[in-house]
């Protein structure tokens, strides 16, 4: 993912709400969110090059998402392990979120720059190999893109405001409309609000919108995940094809702890 708004224990009806965009090169093949044949408890999209994923949830209520960390001053190592495996390994594994995060922190330098969110019934945790330590998240609304958690880039601030607006009206059908609107927002930030991440002003402009579209790179999928207090999970992903205005929607609903149908 390259943009995540996350609300943790911030609404009476929901333990977790996540709205996220995945940005990637159009040439990189991927599968839309589905239950994995080789890990039937995992619901996620899939990177068909390396086999990992950018965001997912399990029948047991494990949740994880990753973003890259943008730092052109540090060359990416072509031999580094896939960051998508960080999500997939947690979702398929048995270690609790806190233990997984601390174990990963000891070997995080092997990877190119990343931000990782992992959570389960024991709590939600944030880890980056561009910062020290593992952070347990307290109840609240958070935003993440390609810098550290809650770095106030314009699109992060927009996404957090949209999450707050949605939570304020989170009852009945359609309450998540502000989240989808925010994920589809193509407005480029004003020059005086752009971050300086070393990629040049023109590229900063292109990457500043929540929904990115260039000739070779852009937003490939938008996802809204909700986990209600009663354990009901709703996972909706809208996949966008390069050059097209519409999307293909994948919708899933289940209750945490429910067995897979054979």
How many strand elements? 13
Structural class: alpha+beta
Shape: globular
Give the name of the CATH superfamily.
Answer: Penicillin V Acylase, Chain A
Poorly predicted runs are: none
Integer average pLDDT: 94
What fraction of the residues are assigned to beta strands by DSSP? 35-45%
Overall tally of domains: 1
**The first-level CATH class name:** Alpha Beta
Q: Kindly report the CATH topology.
A: Penicillin V Acylase, Chain A
Succession of helices and strands = EEEEEEHHEEEEHHHEEE
The first-to-last residue Cα distance is 31 Å
From the 3D coordinates, which CATH architecture would you assign?
4-Layer Sandwich
Number of DSSP helical runs? 5
Helix coverage percent = 10-25%
Radius of gyration: 17 Å
Q: Mind describing the biggest β-sheet? A: 7 strands, antiparallel
State the strand order across the main sheet. Answer: 3-4-5-6-7-8-9
